[in-house]
Amino acid sequence: MKKLASPRPAAFTLAALAALVATPAFAQAQAPKIDPADTAWMIVASALVLMMTVPGLALFYAGMVRKKNILGTMAQSLAAVLIVSLLWAIIGYSLAFTGDGRWIGSLDRALLMGMGMDSVSALAKTIPESLFMFFQATFAIITVALVAGSVADRMKFSAFLWFCILWILFVYVPIAHWVWGGGWLSTMGLLDFAGGTVVHINAGIAGIVAALVLGARRGYPHENLSPHDLSLAVIGTALLWVGWFGFNGGSALGSGSRATMAILVTHLAACSGALAWMFAEWATRGKPSVLGVISGVIAGLGTITPASGFVLPWHAVVIGLLAGLICFWACTKLKQRLGYDDSLDVFGIHGVGGTLGTLLTGVFAVGALSATAETPGGSPGLIEGNAAQVYTQLIGVGATIVWSGVVTWILLKVIGAFVGLRVSDEAERMGLDITQHGEAVQ
Amino acid sequence: MPGIRSMKLVIAIIKPFKLDEVRDALTAIGVHGMTITEVKGYGRQKGHTEIYRGAEYAVNFLPKIRVEVAVPKDRVSKVVDAIVGAAKTGQIGDGKIFVTAIESAVRIRTGETDANAL
User: Topology of domain B7-117, per CATH?
Assistant: First the structure.
C-alpha cells in the first residue's frame, strides 16, 4: 500500500505489470506445470470466442441481410463451426501450432495423436494442450465465418463448405503458423497479440477478393438492399463485444494482469471506436444511425485486437478513435469510389481495421507489458524509441495481404471450376433460405 | 338486380396511426363492420431516404392502412365525412378515399343478400 504514494505511479504500474507477467515465465523455465487459474480462465475464454461465431456473428450478419437470406446467412456461421472444428482436430492444429518450421508446422499432432491428459504445448505452458488446441480452433472458426459477409446473399452453400475446408488449410493455417506457431513472422518479431493479421486482415482481404470473384449482388447498387432487421445485428454485436474479452483476454493464454489489461483496452477501444463512427456519420450524413454505432464497435474491437496485449488504456482510446474514423471512411467513401460489393463490409471494417491496428501496435507497444524473464525489455514500439518495430509490422501486414489475397483467389477459381460459386439469378431473386435450404422465415 | 347502385364500397387509404380514430368515428355513426389491410404506397408524399453505411436508398412505398366499408348508398356521405374527420392531420400523406358500387352481397352464415347482408 505504501507504494501507492509513489511519486511516479505510472512507472510503478509498468514495473509491477512486468513483474506479474514475468512470474509465470520463471515457473515455465523450471518445468511446465498446469495452472488451475490459467486453465479456468482459458476454458471460459474459449467458450466466449465460440459464442462470437454462434450466435454472435450469425445474428450480426443475419440482421444486415434481406429477409429471404436470414437462414442462409446463419447456416454459413454454423457450417464454419462444424467443419473447421473437425478439420482443426484432423490436421489444422498440428500444421499451425506444432513443429518449428519457418513456413508450416508439423504432423506431430495429426488426428491429435499423442495429445494425452497431461500434454502441454510449448506455446502455452500452463494450460492443458487440449484447451490450447480448442481455444485456437475457435479463432479459425470465426475467421472463415467472417469472410462470408463479403459474399452475403449470393454464394452457394456447397461452395461455402468447400471454401471453409480449403481456405482454413491453405490460408489460415500457414498464416497462423507464421505469426503464432513459431514461423518466420514470429521469429522476425511481429507483434500480433490476438489476430490483427491472422484473423482480421486475413478475413478482410479474403472477403474483398471473394466479393470481386463472385461479383456484386443482383441490383447493386441501384435496388434497395437494405438490412431487414438491425435489432438482430445489435444483439449480435453485443455478443461479439463480450466474446471479444475472451478473444483478446484469452490471447494472454492465462489469467492475470496481462489478460485483464487486454480486456480493459479492448472495451475502451470498442467505445471510442463507436463514438468516433457515430459522430463522423452525424456530421457528414445528418443522423447518428444505430448501424453506424455497431459498425464502430466492431471497428474498434477489430483494430485493438493485435495491440490488446501490448498497449495501455489511453493508447487504446486513440486506437479506437482512429479505427472509427478510418473504417467509416473506408465503408462509406472508399467502397463507393472503388465500386466493389463487399456486402457486409468485411474489408472496410476488418481488413482496414486489422491493418491499422497492426501498424499502430508497432507505434504504441509498451515494452513492460510483454516483458518476460528471457526478454526483460519486452517488445517496445515507436513511442519507446523502437521505430524498427513499425517496419516489422509493415512486413507482417504485407505478407498477410499477399498470401491471403493470392491464395484465396486461386482457391475460389478452383471451387468455381468444380462446383460453381454463385447461385443462379433466379435463386438469388428467391433468396438463399428457400433455394439452398428449403425453408424460410415468415 | 336490386343490389346495383343500392350499396357502395368505401375504400380509404389512411395513415396507420389513425386507424383507431377512424374505427371509433365509424362506430359512432353506426357502422359495425369493416375490413383493413396493411398496404404500402405513395402519392404526393413521395417517401423518404434511408442510409446504411455507404448505401443510400430512396424508399418510395410507405406503410398505409386500407380500410374497406360496405354501406347502403344513402349513408355514403356520412361515412366519408367521418373518415375524413378522423384521419385528417393536415400534413401531406393523409391518404385518399375512393367510393365504388357493389353489385351484390351475401352474408355467408344466413344466406341473406344485398342490403340485408351489410
Answer: Alpha-Beta Plaits (3.30.70)
